[in-house]
Design a protein that fits this description.
343 residues, alpha/beta, FAD/NAD(P)-binding domain, five-stranded parallel beta sheet, Thioredoxin reductase (NADPH), oxidoreductase, FAD/NAD-bd_sf
Amino acid sequence: MTTSTASPDTTHYEVAVVGGGPAGLTTALYTARLGHETAVFDRGGGRAAMIQETHNVIGVPESVSGNEFLETAVEQIQSYGAAYRTEFVTSVDRRDGVFELETTDGSATADRVVLATGFSDGRPEPPLPRTGRGLHYCLHCDAYLFVDEPVYVMGHDDSAATVAMLMLNVTDDVDLLVRGTEPDWSAETDVLLSNHPVDVVHEDVSGVQNGEDGWLEALEFDDGTVREYTGGFAMYGSEYNDDLATSLGAELTDDGTVVVGDHGRTSVDGLFAVGDLTPGHNQIPVAMGHGAKAGIELHKSLREFPKSLADLEAEGAVDPQDAPAISAALRSQANTHSSAGGD
């Protein structure tokens, strides 16, 4: 039997969420409100923090930036008693059924761990437009910005070619910039591309022209040409932050995402994964849905009551003094929150 190496003064949580994006914060919102001691470990940054304007999140105006969205979410989870720790989790081990987390600023233990570490977009080499001001990564989020506008797609594989053709649904002026790289899309994609009005530009980008508001106006190319664009999309793949999942032995797909069931359970008992780290669409509402479903599933796995018949046979009837099962700290927080009118 492996002996725990956690320090006696290490803080213990029922749920430890690694990653402070929309998926992780939604998970924490649910588990804290459902009465479980919860902590979010967030190193900062992430794809959501880069958003200049929030799109496709019902009830949230587009004037809200990603950082503003996340700051509000952190305030919400804290108002329900969840801890928010601005630390980078360097390792997670599982000993005797308990997860032990080491961070850049300490350690913690938890009954359940939720990985919400997402991924990083592959970025092309400079020169580049400003992210969110002409350089975009999410077609479903930002295609609406470019209806009837001149658009580029950067990349040289099947995904880039497909996105270029998809953009024809919103504009008739689409260029595919391979930036001096020999295209490696399939023969089938090549036939499709040649039969769609997409202009493949082979020269590399040599300069960027921005307007006074910072938005892209044009790109300059090695052959001296200048092409006007309102914006476009970079398609250079994704790098999934799956190191912790790998170290714990969780099953991964071929592209590096973590295999999960319908409610975020991984192949490792007690380990969940949500958001962009898992297969599917990389969207804030989708990530929030992952978090909500995982939060409910975590509650079902952790809640004290109702006792099972086997537990009642072994332990006897529930003593009224044992209810409610919520911890004293979260119970106090809930009473304070309710008396203040809630959110």
